[in-house]
Design the sequence.
């Protein structure tokens, strides 16, 4: 008696069902796409209009300043919104050499560059220790640094004047650099403190198991991991220090040691009504250009740090 065993169609049937389920779910997802309502379209239109107006308000003065920097004073007063009759860099040469913007620019680069390096190094080290280590007085030091954020700069001008004068640092670039570091350090520690706390502890523990010291762990492992946060706070500190005006005016009254903010104010007021406005606008462009360059170079790091913070 021959017996034949019928093939069981369980597997093909299951496969067909699974495929059908996947297709059904895919079609269901396609059907469940959000539909834009009239209110959503209206909101998007209004938002784009507002952003367009805001962009015009921000960009238009910058473009006008750039175009005006190529004009002569007579052209500026005759037709302020027309193109220059002759394109050239004479205004930039006059601003750089005659008005002394070149010397002020060099002083600013030295002061801001040194202060930025010191505040980033000291701020990162201080924030790392306060965030990753527990010791007596940890919270006290952290809150004392935060208290520095609540002190207005104008209230510290007179004490700073006498302190720098007592140390022989008044009207000197090193004295101005130290003052910049002191005022930028609290915000740097506050910003990086939360960033270092969010980094995984397993990595630092693995480095210690492998024999790495605390210094090696910080500089070789933890500091590179905090690169997005460092880039963000670098931009903020650079903008604040580069555009600083009150501290240099009060603590740096020696004209050869002026920074750019002081140099622009002196250039605008020294000639009375006989100001070379073309060279003045060229000096403004020279002052603003490094800020734009730094932001363009670090904007991706800034966006990455913001997105990384929202994902944690």
Sequence:
């Amino acid at each position: 008696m021959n017996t034949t065993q019928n093939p069981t169609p369980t597997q093909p049937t299951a496969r067909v069902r699974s495929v059908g389920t996947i297709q059904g779910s895919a079609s269901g997802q396609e059907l469940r796409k959000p539909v834009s309502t009239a209110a959503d379209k209206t909101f998007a239109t209004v938002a784009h209009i507002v952003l367009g107006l805001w962009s015009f308000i921000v960009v238009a003065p910058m473009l006008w300043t750039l175009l005006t920097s190529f004009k002569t004073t007579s052209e500026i007063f005759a037709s302020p919104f027309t193109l220059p009759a002759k394109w050239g860099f004479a205004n930039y040469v006059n601003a750089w050499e005659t008005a002394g913007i070149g010397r002020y620019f060099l002083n600013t680069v030295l002061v801001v560059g040194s202060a930025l390096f010191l505040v980033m190094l000291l701020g990162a080290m201080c924030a790392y220790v306060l965030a990753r280590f527990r010791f007596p007085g940890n919270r006290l030091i952290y809150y004392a640094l935060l208290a520095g954020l609540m002190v207005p700069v104008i209230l510290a001008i007179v004490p700073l004047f006498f302190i720098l004068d007592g140390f022989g640092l008044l009207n000197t670039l090193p004295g101005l650099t130290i003052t910049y570091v002191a005022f930028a350090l609290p915000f740097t520690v506050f910003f990086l403190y939360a960033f270092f706390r969010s980094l995984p502890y397993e990595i630092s523990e693995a480095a210690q198991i492998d024999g790495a010291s605390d210094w090696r762990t910080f500089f070789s492992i933890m500091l590179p991991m905090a690169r997005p946060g460092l880039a963000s706070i670098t931009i903020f500190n650079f903008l604040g220090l580069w555009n600083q005006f009150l501290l240099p005016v009060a603590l740096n009254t020696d004209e050869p040691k002026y920074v750019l903010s002081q140099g622009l104010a002196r250039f605008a007021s020294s000639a009375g009504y006989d100001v070379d406005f073309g060279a003045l606008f060229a000096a403004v462009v020279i002052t603003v250009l490094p800020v734009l360059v730094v932001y363009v170079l670090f904007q991706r790091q800034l966006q990455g740090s913001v997105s990384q913070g929202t994902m944690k």
User: Anything to note?
Assistant: Residues 277-311 form the longest helix (35 residues). The CA atoms of residues 116 and 225 lie 20 Å apart. The chain has a mean pLDDT of 83. DSSP finds 14 helices and no strands in the chain.
